[in-house]
Every structure is written in structure tokens, then in C-alpha cells.
Amino acid sequence: MRKLLPELVVLDLSIPEMGGLSVISNLKLIVVSSKVLILTSGESRNFAILALQADADGFVCKDDNLDELIGAVKAVLSGYNYFPANTIHILRDNSEAATHESIQLSLLSDREITALKLLACGLGNQDVAGQLMVSHKAVSTYKVRLQRKLNVANLIDLVELAKRNGLV
């Protein structure tokens, strides 16, 4: 990035071992003038809000028509943001809720975020305990604390919140 100074970066959110959303802010720090267009296979209503909050300049779902990508590239390179029409109303309707969840997530410790990610990936208490090198009772405590801090009723709601916010 520093060497080539690209005008446009087309980024998939599912980067192995990295979160595509966190890559966006790093890219913008390296080359301020670069535009970032998200091209991902995730369901657009789940990722469009996250892409916008992460300061992406555009968003296209891989399942869309190829013409959609061409239009997005042209729009972003012309200085416009590009989010498909079918996601705009979702962004408006969910922006307040998404902002609230983002604030709640930002208040979690790194350890709590890691525990949430592992739980959201379907790992059981014993497996999470092994990954975090804590007892399974500590994992139960993390779950209760996460439910309280994120204002959700159960593990299913925790998993859904994690997925909505790109943690899985």
C-alpha cells in the first residue's frame, strides 16, 4: 500500500486470521486518499452497516450481478459512496441499534471479545477454556458477564450479536 499508493482497494471481509473490517482502518491510515470497496459473500444486511461504520467507501455483495461491481467501482472512483439501494433502508433502520451495539462492544475487554468470538464460533466451555487457558467455570463467568454487558438473554443472542457485528 505504501509503495503502490492505490487509488482503489477492493477488499473481501473474510480475510483469514484478520478481520476485514479492521483492515479498512489500517488501509485508510496508510494511504488516506485510497478508496475502499467491500466485495464480500456475506448477506448484505448483516455487513453493509459494519462496512459503513468501518469507513468503507462502498459495498457490493458477491452474489449480486457483475454490473453492480462495475457501477460501484465507477461511483467510488468518482468520489461517491456506493451502497446498493436494497441496503440503504436497512442502514437507516438499523443505524441506531448498530451504533448502540458498537458502543457496547467497545466497552468489552480484549479477553471478553476473544471469549465472545470463540463462543460465537460454536466452541463449548471446555474448548474455550483451553484456548484462553482458564477453567471452564471462568468461561461460564465470561458468558454471564457478556450477557449482562451486551444486554442479551442467552448464548444464542450473544452469537447473533457477534455475527451481526462481524466478530465471526
Describe the structure.
By secondary structure, the chain is mainly α. The protein has 2 domains: 8-102, 3-Layer(aba) Sandwich (Rossmann fold), CATH 3.40.50.2300; 107-164, Arc Repressor Mutant, subunit A. The protein is built from 8 helices and 3 strands; from the N terminus they run βαβαβαααααα. Strands 1-2-3 form a 3-stranded parallel β-sheet, with helices on both faces. Helix 1 links the parallel strand 1 (8-11) and strand 2. Helix 2 (44-53) packs across helix 4 (85-106), helix 5 runs antiparallel to helix 6 (125-132) and helix 5 crosses helix 8 (155-164). The model has no long low-confidence stretch (mean pLDDT 83).
Annotate the secondary structure layout.
Elements: E1 8-11, H1 20-30, E2 35-40, H2 44-53, E3 58-61, H3 66-77, H4 85-106, H5 110-120, H6 125-132, H7 136-150, H8 155-164
Parallel strand pairs: 1-2, 2-3
Helix pairs in contact: 2-4, 5-6, 5-8, 6-7
Record keyword descriptors for this entry.
168 residues; 2 domains; mainly alpha; 3 strands; Rossmann fold; elongated
Mean pLDDT: 83
Supply the CATH class of the largest domain: Alpha Beta
Rg calc: 18 Å
Distance between the termini: 26 Å
- Number of separate structural domains: 2
Order of helices and strands: EHEHEHHHHHH
State the CATH topology of the largest domain: Rossmann fold
Number of contiguous helices: 8
Helix content: 55-70%
Strand portion: 5-15%
Name of the CATH architecture of the largest domain: 3-Layer(aba) Sandwich
Q: Superfamily at the CATH H level of the largest domain?
A: Response regulator
The low-confidence runs, each spanning 5 or more residues with pLDDT under 50, are: none
* Shape assignment: elongated
Counted beta strands: 3
